[in-house]
Amino acid sequence: MRRSDQRRDAVFASYQRDVTGRPLDDLIAADAKPFTRELAEGVAEHRDELDAVIARHAKGWSLERIAPLDRNIMRVALFEIEHRDDVPAEVAIDEAIELAKQYCGTDAPGFVNGVLGAAVRDPAVMAESEGPTP
């Protein structure tokens, strides 16, 4: 299974958790790849931090006004940017835009790109993703 497919599965599990309130373990397939599980669990663990970044960069939008699927696409991308050393920010953003194109409304890809691009340009966000300096 390609990483793109695993990202999609992590986004949908996170989305379903938001919408239904069901536990994440019930929403991730038993045979899910480790990358899918890591992304979904990482989003759940760092949700408040990820939401704060989204809210800070979604100019004119409260977090609650952002469609749940759009929000979870951005959460997964931001988790990768901030917590995965093997995924370049550009790749995480491109993957998020592609998911938004495929599954969200016509304005979603531009919105997702704008929020994630602003987050990546924010020195505070990038400092968090680089971890403590030695």
What percentage of residues falls in helices of 4 or more residues?
A: over 70%
Question: Which overall shape is indicated by the principal axes computed on the Cα atoms?
Answer: globular
Mind summarizing the main beta sheet? none
Strand portion: under 5%
End-to-end Cα distance, whole Å, is 36 Å
In total, how many beta strands? Answer: 0
Q: Could you spell the SSE succession in H and E letters?
A: HHHHHHHH
Let me know the average pLDDT. 92
What would you call the structural class? mainly alpha
- Low-confidence segments: none
User: How many distinct helices?
Assistant: 8
Gyration radius over CA = 14 Å
Can you offer a commentary on this structure?
With 134 residues, the chain is mainly α. The chain has eight helices and no strands. It is globular, with a radius of gyration of 14 Å. 38% of the residues are buried.
Topology:
Layout: H1 3-20, H2 24-27, H3 34-45, H4 47-57, H5 68-83, H6 89-103, H7 108-121, H8 123-130
Distinctive features:
about 0% strand; about 130 residues
Summarize the structure.
The protein is mostly helical and 134 residues long. The protein is 73% helix and 0% strand.
